[in-house]
Amino acid sequence: MSKDATYEVPIGPIHPALKEPFMVKFKLDGETIVDADPHPGMNHRGIEFMGMHRNPLKVIPLAERICGICSIVHQHMYTTAVEHAAGIEPTNRARYIRTIMCELERIHSHVLWAGVAAHEIGFDTHLHFTWKIREKVMDLLEEISGNRVNYSMWTVGGVRRDIPKKMYRRDFSPKMYPKIQNTLEYYEKLYGKLEDIFLGDPSIRLRTKNIGILTEKEALELCGVGPTVRASGVKKDVRIDQPYAAYGDLELDYVIPSRYGYENTGDVFSKTLVRLKEILQSIDLIRQCVQKMPDEDIDSEPKKAALLNKLKKADGEGIGRIEAPRGEALHYVRLKEGHEELDNWKVRASTYNNLATYAPMFLGEQIADIPIIAACIDPCIGCMDRAEIVDINTGEQTSYDHEELHEMSVRKTREILGDKL
Hints:
Shape: globular
Order of helices and strands: EEEHHHHHEEHHHHHHHEEEHHHHEEH
CATH class of the largest domain: Mainly Alpha
Oligomer: single chain
Helix content: 40-55%
């Protein structure tokens, strides 16, 4: 087909392959993708604006609702940013509990993603299997926190709930910590089946090998993060590069395909491999935390009135930067002395970085591969959507104040409704 005969196919914002409102406009030459233009911005909920009208402690429940799957991630980043801004240090025991919770959520996120990926290429049996086994880690998260999704575990200076000491004796007697040990063993026993399904099955290999390739050079130039770029051989992981919580006390290494005898091709298969191997890594990290966790208080300031008073007197900026299951993410916070509410709050989630990697992964592929390539970065639109506008032709960024945004909203509404107003 000639170049002049290319045609446009918009996918989204509502589509069976998409779990959140999001659009990508594709240009096709026959069945081949020649251009991909993502159009986010349909799920922005104004959470940061709402947060700047609350005191720092009341923002914590709001922060964890930025994303259901990355609930712990946003709690962790936000409280860390506030701690940096206010000069508050969490206790050592809290640092280990935070790490355990983060790695449990990583297991949950990666198992869930595997099911979604299988669904996108028509393997719903695999979807049902993976979503069945994710119940085990969700049960453990509920056992620790009391909640299956939004865990309400974090506070400024520590955590709100302890992991009972009797469950974590160094002798590893099953009677002393049955819940966590049982969960880790459960995933270790099932891991071989997960690899057989997602790495060994010939049909799945045909749908993932050499599909959606992101080279190491492209991954670096486009500033991708997480498994999306580690699959290309990029050694980038905040837990190692800039350790936080208890990660500086633990033994861990970058999970890239070449460590396991595979090429760092950066295709969908490689991204699947990285996520599966990170499940094993998370199991090991949790066990290390269990062995090393010190006996201390879980909160540096248990009196909330005293903590709020300290935060009100604080004046400074802070950043919480961590390795979410999808990759590096951060929260920026500014506190102003004498003000009870946040002076500023900015969130940058992993998908914000990884969205740019879509272009090289889609180009030259077939229309039938769109769902699995779209899923391979594990996109979270609720996390990502922010009110920043960039001109795709010039790269120039534009920002608007409250009055300008209101005026634009009124004008757009008048355009849509016309004479009905």
